[in-house]
């Protein structure tokens, strides 16, 4: 079954491809059918394949994430997968008459000049991180294959996450991020826009309506409160919701509108008027879009 897992990793086995039947594999490798059936069941439990009643076993469209260490079934861990893929590269090079010295030199040069192929947001506040990632995905999702992830500077997996990534940081953290990272790591500072423009849709302030403020980020709720009161809204007319709490949507159907971040806007029930505030400035979103377009065209 290791061959099946490696075939999926190397894309020799495509998503949705039907795998040989239990009986066929048992006959090919001189195994008991129960042994093959058990292996297929384990592969399915680990997320590599899926069985379809009456049709057979198929490669899943979404493969599981490889982690360091081996699972209970003894199937390949990340290190073994890399060994397999590198071995295939060396064998292919040899078949083309390329020496290991030449391959090593070219591979080194290729890795050195490669552009980042994903974004990595370094932000300690998990709620804020989720909001910013949602905005980046919304801005760049249709422009290329630039996935975005995030973590804090003290994350144990930071060193690995930095590989092949363009690091992003918000203005308040950019200096600390640059100081903590190795020399030469590129960091893009994302600019923040003002909340005032987002409130224009609510002005002038109504005197007899409730206005909601919803976000998992505490600072967003506080800044929104200050801005709304300054714009003329009575403090008692404001209804606040922490999206991390159970049942946070309860009662929002009674408000005139909900001021929220872009991530929360996707979670609000249909029928509620949303006034989404985009945290990132248009200039930063445009820069990310240009970068994603450039990578997608390579």
Automatic annotation (TrEMBL):
> Which domain of life does the protein's organism represent?
Bacteria
Task: Enumerate the CDD domains for this protein.
Answer: WHTH_GntR
Q: Which GO terms describe its molecular function?
A: DNA binding; DNA-binding transcription factor activity
InterPro entries, per the entry: Tscrpt_reg_HTH_GntR, WH-like_DNA-bd_sf, WH_DNA-bd_sf
Which SUPFAM superfamilies does the record cross-reference, listed alphabetically?
Winged helix' DNA-binding domain
What Gene3D superfamilies does the annotation carry? Winged helix-like DNA-binding domain superfamily/Winged helix DNA-binding domain (1.10.10.10)
Describe the location of the HTH gntR-type domain by residue ranges: 1-62
Q: Which UniProt keywords apply?
A: DNA-binding, Transcription, Transcription regulation
UniProt protein name: DNA-binding transcriptional regulator YhcF (GntR family)
Q: Which organism is it from?
A: Granulicella arctica
The top of its lineage is: Bacteria, Pseudomonadati, Acidobacteriota, Terriglobia, Terriglobales
């Amino acid at each position: 079954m290791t061959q099946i897992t490696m075939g999926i990793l190397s894309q020799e086995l495509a998503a949705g491809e039907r795998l040989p039947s239990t009986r066929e594999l048992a006959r090919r490798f001189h195994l008991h059918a129960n042994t093959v059936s058990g292996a297929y069941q384990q592969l399915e439990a680990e997320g590599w394949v899926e069985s379809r009643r009456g049709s057979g076993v198929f490669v899943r469209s979404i493969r599981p994430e490889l982690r360091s260490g081996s699972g209970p079934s003894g199937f390949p861990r990340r290190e073994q997968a890399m060994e397999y893929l590198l071995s295939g590269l060396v064998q292919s090079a040899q078949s083309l008459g390329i020496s290991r010295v030449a391959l090593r030199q070219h591979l080194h040069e290729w890795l050195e000049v490669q552009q980042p192929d994903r974004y990595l947001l370094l932000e300690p506040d998990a709620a804020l991180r989720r909001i910013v990632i949602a905005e980046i995905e919304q801005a760049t999702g249709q422009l290329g294959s630039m996935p975005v992830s995030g973590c804090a500077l003290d994350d144990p997996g930071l060193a690995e996450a930095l590989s092949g990534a363009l690091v992003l940081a918000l203005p308040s953290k950019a200096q600390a991020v640059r100081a903590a990272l190795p020399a030469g790591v590129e960091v893009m500072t994302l600019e923040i826009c003002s909340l005032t423009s987002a409130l224009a849709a609510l002005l002038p302030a109504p005197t007899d309506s409730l206005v909601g403020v919803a976000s998992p980020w505490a600072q967003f709720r506080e800044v929104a409160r200050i801005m709304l009161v300054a714009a003329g809204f009575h403090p008692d007319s404001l209804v606040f919701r922490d999206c991390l709490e159970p049942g946070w949507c309860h009662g929002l159907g009674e408000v005139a509108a909900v001021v929220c971040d872009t991530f929360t806007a996707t979670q609000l029930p249909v029928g509620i008027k949303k006034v989404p505030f985009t945290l990132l400035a248009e200039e930063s979103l445009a820069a990310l879009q240009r970068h994603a377009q450039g990578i997608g065209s390579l």
